[in-house]
Amino acid sequence: MYSYLRSSEKDESLELPPGTLRFEPAPESVRETIDMLFEPPTGNLAPSTRHAYHSAWRDFEAWCEERGRSPVPAPGAHVARFLVSRGALTRSTLKKRRAAIGFVHEELGFDNPAHAPPATLAWEALNEKKGLRRATGKVKETLEAGDVLDDPFHLLRERLLRERPDPEEPHPLLREGGPAPTHEAGPPDDVLTEEQRALVGELPARIEPSWDAASEAFRRAARDWTLLLAGAVAKLSRSEILRLRVDDLRVAGPDLVVVATRDPDGDISRAIAVPRPRKETVPFDVARAAAAWVLAAEIEEGPLARSLTRHGEPKGQPMSPYGFNVMLKRRAEEAGLDPGEWSARRLKEGPAPR
Q1: Phi, psi of 259 (to 5 degrees)
Q2: CATH architecture of 145-347
Q3: End-to-end Cα spacing for the chain
Q4: What is the SS3 assignment for 32?
Q5: Residue 151 — pLDDT band, cuts 50, 70, 90?
């Protein structure tokens, strides 16, 4: 595919040893082949992921062109140098860059250079550096719980728009379009039972405003808050909650959130219009809860109801029904409710969407 020549000199810009392959610029036909990888449908990639990967790949391609290199197949040291050059980006944005490089190489039948030792070492070093910077509070990107609990939603909206791999591509929570509402739920102030209000309202109250949003405690609280609130307001079954994806929630305006549900085959079955609280009531605002969760977990696609590692890192797969039951009972007990009386059925009590 890509043609190459053998270099007899050391490439100082990449710190590669003599004899390393020097790649010529990519032929136009190969560029077109790569562009086709990002045209729908692209395997199991969600539209937002496809756009983010394409933007990330264009950045890597431009970086290569500036140095007279072909971006594929790229050596691991090449990828390491690229990641270091983009070290000022947020961790989630760098992660997209790394994933896009691997995606293109694997789709074209090459080994993933992002997993090569030089690239892996660079990635780990960048992660450690960013972790230290967050711990010392020297970076603006640090998100604290107080930012979510106290800031008006329009500031959270700005953060969702700002921390993007591609600033021109809106976060899935803020995208336009999507399925038109087929059902309408009542305002949270009206449809939540007294016990549901106690269950959900206790979660943000237990969050310390000084917590780093990347902490295990905040991620668990934000996830549980989102799932229990969406389930209680939209009157979702446990299966519907566990099948929710990030792009199934959409802030459709200042006063409305649309929650789409899926059938067992993964197809949209309903789109429920959920009004935001009549007052700025933080505990019962689905938009605020969802923003807290996706910002803390740094997720933009895939399951919304994710299981977490013991360190609070989100996994790629959804929670199990058993895991959801355990979480629900634990949160009920923390709210002073009898955990033995709580199951997913209790979340559906109250007026159903019309």
Answers
A1: -110, 115
A2: Orthogonal Bundle (1.10)
A3: 57
A4: helix
A5: low
